[in-house]
Amino acid sequence: MPTTQKPRKAILTQEQLSQFQESQCHKDIAAYIESLNASVTGVKLSDECPQSPGITAILALLDRVEKLVAEIPPVDNKASRFGNPAFRTFYDRVLEISHDLHASLPNLPEDAIPEVATYLEESWGNKARLDYGSGMELNFLCWLFCLERLGVVQDEDHTALVIRVFWRYIGVMRKLQSTYWLEPAGSHGVWGLDDYHFLPFLFGSAQLRGHKYIRPKSIHDNELVDEYAKDYMYLACIKFINSIKTASLRWHSPMLDDISAVKTWDKVNQGMVKMYLAEVLGKLPVIQHFLFGSILTWEGEFPEQHDESKCGHDHSKPGVLGVGGWGDCCGIPIPSVFGAAEAEKAHGGVPLSGPSIRPIPFD
């Protein structure tokens, strides 16, 4: 492996995004997602699976991060439906202990820690905007990819990486989101799947492939969802959404509602993979924040200087909110789902705004 380097951004334009989509880095990430996806086909969250020392160490690391939340309570911010400033203290604390966290992982070279740690540090949310979205979730995936390349985990750990490690990460993120009221990054969550996440639906639909009687339409059966949420990510996410949103699934999550009409989980899972490649790995507002180092490499020239105050694309055209193209990426404050839920309670459970959704066919 080449000399390690601190990961940095390289994509500012649509042309650079196209270059990324043709790169080995993109192929590696897509293949990694496919491999993780295949490893959990028909696997329950409650199933036994081999757990290597690397998996055990990563889980202990996530436990330590979660404990920070209890040590850093939210500040009194009841007048706001937006992110709680205490998240910035949490973020700084993670940075302070980041080296020690990574030093606890088996087989991780000391000189690789600064590079690898960057992906984990960026996977909790944005310190300045107090938000979280699919780009941060992608950073966690990249962190796992780097750990595998460096020998902390191996191919045979893939099932555990999904149903133990990744699902544990989602649990920590739900705590962060609910404690600090993190705002959804962008203007519409992840296109109606969830305000914050995408991959639990992708991996979760793989878990359900070939299930004897749970069908995509079963998400509308609350008793079944409650019974099987402990076993399947997809249903756990539906249960979570139902627990914090008062309106019908059709209103607040129309994409999930549309997907429920698909006949089989095979089709749903195939559609999720295509959707991820198109709408996460294929969208400039997300990939402009992608970080390249010596493991996930950029094959072109790095920009001489990346202005963090600029996103690198045109804001002059109307966006999904009708305000200068900012709707998809650049931090128009969107109320936390938890803040919005509190506000809805104050208005008798009536939703205060509707979603803006870009439908993607599952065929």
From TrEMBL:
It is found in: Cytoplasm. Its main location: cytoplasm. GO terms for biological process: mitotic spindle organization. The keyword 4Fe-4S does not apply. GO terms for cellular component: cytoplasm; nucleus; protein phosphatase type 2A complex. It holds the Pfam family PTPA. GO terms for molecular function: peptidyl-prolyl cis-trans isomerase activity; protein tyrosine phosphatase activator activity. InterPro entries: Phstyr_phstse_ac, PTPA_C_lid, PTPA_sf. Its EC number is 5.2.1.8. Keywords: Cytoplasm, Isomerase, Rotamase. It catalyses: [protein]-peptidylproline (omega=180) = [protein]-peptidylproline (omega=0). PANTHER family: SERINE/THREONINE-PROTEIN PHOSPHATASE 2A REGULATORY SUBUNIT B, SERINE_THREONINE-PROTEIN PHOSPHATASE 2A ACTIVATOR 2. PPIases accelerate the folding of proteins. It catalyzes the cis-trans isomerization of proline imidic peptide bonds in oligopeptides. Acts as a regulatory subunit for PP2A-like phosphatases modulating their activity or substrate specificity, probably by inducing a conformational change in the catalytic subunit, a direct target of the PPIase. Can reactivate inactive phosphatase PP2A-phosphatase methylesterase complexes (PP2Ai) in presence of ATP and Mg(2+) by dissociating the inactive form from the complex. Belongs to the PTPA-type PPIase family. This is Serine/threonine-protein phosphatase 2A activator.
